[in-house]
């Protein structure tokens, strides 16, 4: 069902239940890369229409301040320069600091006049509600690869609570990743490594993500 409402009257609660505005489809020869990502944040699938949008989804799912993710949450219309302008943002992130409306665009295209114009009036509309607006482009490659890797361990039900509790209770602050398995004897090494990766995903353990993960990376406890 489509509802046409004044922008100032649309609630976050209504948008949180929105379904993607555009019809999601695949076809032979399509130029963009589409798919569906299972989000640990929403415990549901979220669509994307490019690899860059998938990257933004990974970062949102990894961000503990993000409580909900909505793809293509609304069609925004505005009368500007004698024309009715329309735009569908890529994502709405509902965070502990308030709503964040996100447009994903390769950096090389952000400065194009028609793109910059659309993003400018969209920003003004979003910020008029006291919400945040973000144009997101390519992230640092190492950080993306690390988060993509850790996302493979995002499904909490795959990990035994006994092992996770032992890791949570162990003194791991300042311990290199490669030495953690020795701190929880009685478990197979691959099992421990996988559980550590899950705790890195949930941010219960922290490492710097600005370069590739390796056994020498020092672990920290979250505050």
If you had to describe this structure to a student in words, what would you say it looks like?
The chain is α+β, with helices and mostly antiparallel strands and 223 residues long. The mean pLDDT is 93. Strands 3-6-7-8 form a four-stranded mixed beta sheet, sandwiched between helices. Helices cover 30% and strands 21% of the residues. A hairpin with a 4-residue loop joins strand 1 and strand 2 (44-48).
Question: Which key terms come to mind for this protein?
Answer:
223 residues; alpha+beta; 4-stranded mixed sheet; two-stranded antiparallel sheet; 30% helix; 21% strand; elongated
Offer a quick outline of the entry:
This protein is α+β, with helices and mostly antiparallel strands. It has helices spanning 12-16, 51-62, 107-110, 113-127, 141-150, 161-169, 189-201; strands at 35-39, 44-48, 66-71, 76-80, 83-87, 91-95, 98-104, 132-136, 205-206, 220-221.
Q: Could you give the count of β-strands?
A: 10
Residue fraction in strands = 15-25%
N to C succession of SSEs: HEEHEEEEEHHEHHHEE
Could you name the ranges where pLDDT drops below 50 across 5 or more consecutive residues?
none
